[in-house]
Amino acid sequence: MPDIFLNFPVKASADRVFEAISHSEGLDNWWTKSSVVNPKMDGIYSLDFGPSFNWQAVVTKFNINDNFELKMTNADADWNGSKVGFSLINQDEYTWVNFYHVDWPEINEHYKISSYCWAMYLRILKRYLEFGELVAYEKRLEV
Fold first, then answer.
1. In what order do the strands lie in the sheet with 4-10?
2. Mean per-residue pLDDT for 115-127?
3. What CATH number is associated with residue 105?
4. How far is CA 70 from the centre of its chain?
5. Cα separation of 70 and 61, whole Å?
6. What does the mean pLDDT of the chain come to?
7. pLDDT tens-place string over residues 17-75
8. What are the helix and strand counts (H, E) for the chain?
């Protein structure tokens, strides 16, 4: 199965990064249009990306300031069963973010688009944490 891996530094503490990737306020500032989350192991996440894109996931890894993973349970067919995760490594004033989206069924057009979109969204996460930038949901893939 094809996978997506992206690693990058963020000039922010691991606790700030963890909050941004695992709690509603953080997620809604860089990825989702809105979300309702239960940030704990086996917690259910409702992820709203607009009409017809109300997806669900379950937390499969939750180690505060260390790693976080969601298994997609109700999403686009290509995303169902895939896992989106983050491993964090604190180093001086930086946190290294090791991101992955694994268990794609195949390399298809959606996989290629998602690879690009993840790079864009993770750039927004970095700028949100480092500079407090907020980008309207509808414009996130344009910046």
1. 4-10, 94-102, 83-91, 67-74, 54-63, 44-48, 34-37
2. 97
3. 3.30.530.20
4. 9
5. 7
6. 97
7. 999 999 999 999 999 999 999 999 999 999 999 988 999 999 999 999 999 999 999 99
8. 3, 7
Amino acid of residue 120 = M
**Radius of gyration over every alpha carbon of the chain, rounded to an integer in angstroms:** 14
One-letter amino acid for residue 41 of the chain: M
Strand partners, 88: 97
Number of domains in the chain: 1
Domain containing 130: what range?
4-139
Question: Which of 82, 98, 93 lies closest to 13, judged by CA?
Answer: 93
> According to DSSP H, which parts of 23-108 are helical?
24-30
Residue 117 pairs in a beta bridge with: none
| pTM, full prediction | 0.96
Q: Which residues contact 113 (CB under 8 A, 6 or more apart)?
A: none
Sign of CA dihedral 133, 134, 136, 140: positive
Terminal CA-to-CA distance of the chain, rounded, Å? 30
Q: At what angle do helices 14-22 and 109-131 cross, to 10 degrees?
A: 130
Q: How far is CA 17 from the centre of its chain?
A: 11
